[in-house]
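Bumping with the actual sequence this time:
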Amino acid sequence: MNNRYTAALAALLLLTASLASCGDTAVQPTETQAETSADTAAVTEAVDNTPEYEPDDLSEELDFAGTTTHIFGWEGAANVEFFVEEEDGDIVNDAIFMRNRTVEERLNLALTYTLIPGANPDRASWVKAVSQSIMAGDGANDIVAGYSMCGATLANNRLLIDLMGLDHINFEKPWWPASLIKEATCGGKLYFCSGDISTNMIYYLYSIYFNKTLAQNYDVENLYDLVREGKWTLDKMIEISSNLYSDLNGDGKKDPDDQFGYTTHSTWSDTFFFASGLRTTEIGSEGLPVLSDEFGGEKTQDLLVRLIDMFNTNEMYLGSDYDIVRNQFLEGRALFMTTEVYYAKNYLRDTQIEYGILPVPKYDEAQENYYTVSSFPYTLYGIPVDAKDPSMSAAILECLASESYRTVSPALFEVALKVKYASDNDVSEMYDIIRESNVFDIGRIFNDSMGSKTYSLFRSALVDGNANWISNYEKNVKGMTKQFEKIVENLIAED
């Protein structure tokens, strides 16, 4: 590995030794000593096992003469992604600080960020603000970085530049996920990108948490071995969850205060569709994406029926309140829960819950691989059509992504998630499986331009207990097909 990057990563990882005194939570001295010792061990292991992080191809002679550049981003996620004002002892925050400083030094420019609310409730106003800026044509922003659905909407509205035609970006590099690049490229054109450049791509990966104490009390078989053997399936999860229901409040009915085998929020139930190897789109005979036959097919029908039957039992809880679902697991009242991986850092770090983490179960044992998706709050990056220097913007994207790959992602994934917030050694292996199984679906990405039906149609059927999937799909497929054809038309249109 390049010695410069080895040294930078080692210095970054050594910051974990100060987390106990500089972190978010005050602790007693004895706890501080114990945490510092654990962090030091984590650093030693992480540095010893540092992989060969690939460098980028950016010329060392790139020099943008101190130009002040502008990135228009969004706020409202549960975790930091774009910048921090200063180093604060948090390993991920400090990695982001170091990344931005390195990019500025390598390219001789200044990065400035404008962030406005842009999460799910604010995405329409965020898109409006960015669109008005681009339509003004004054080149105010060099890069726009929005909540995933927002980036797709800008592309559909033809407000972003085709990245494939620009210098400096190499989409064959590992910091650009091949699955996303392949899925989002339409007719040889690509209008947005993401990957290591977005911490939320990791933070919001869907997974299954399990309560190790409940698993032991109920003599549950080794769940990690089930994953390794390819036997961790939806039916196996249902089987294990059976007989764990307990009417804790004694009111004689299933309600949120009871104990369950499995719990999730309705929003997080989307992942079962993709974990089953299903998708909303596929490549058609003309080499362009079309709605997938599987979307409206028998397998989707079967999956929906199994899920409806599952949640109709006492053992399974499908909620509409995020706090209720999260607290069921936090209070030790659920064996399994689907949620994003950042739950370990943001909710479990200061609890006594002994937990493990697993990939989302497969449809059946015949399915070769595990699959998951990131929930929507990851960021899609693009270059607006009025950018003053698209080549410079492209260099910034490549440099941010490659530096993130070598510093931010290792701090977040290899140290924070795999070691600092992990409860056992098997968790590291499970995280690798989860991250490697992340897939993308262009119908899901562009769902705002399709009336949200590429996710809401299946989710609503599950929540409503409407098992007549095929007839329900047939009522909507004509409209969805027309909307999707228009999206494809916009993406492949000549400038």
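The tokens above came from a reply further down the thread. The two ends are 42 Å apart (CA to CA).
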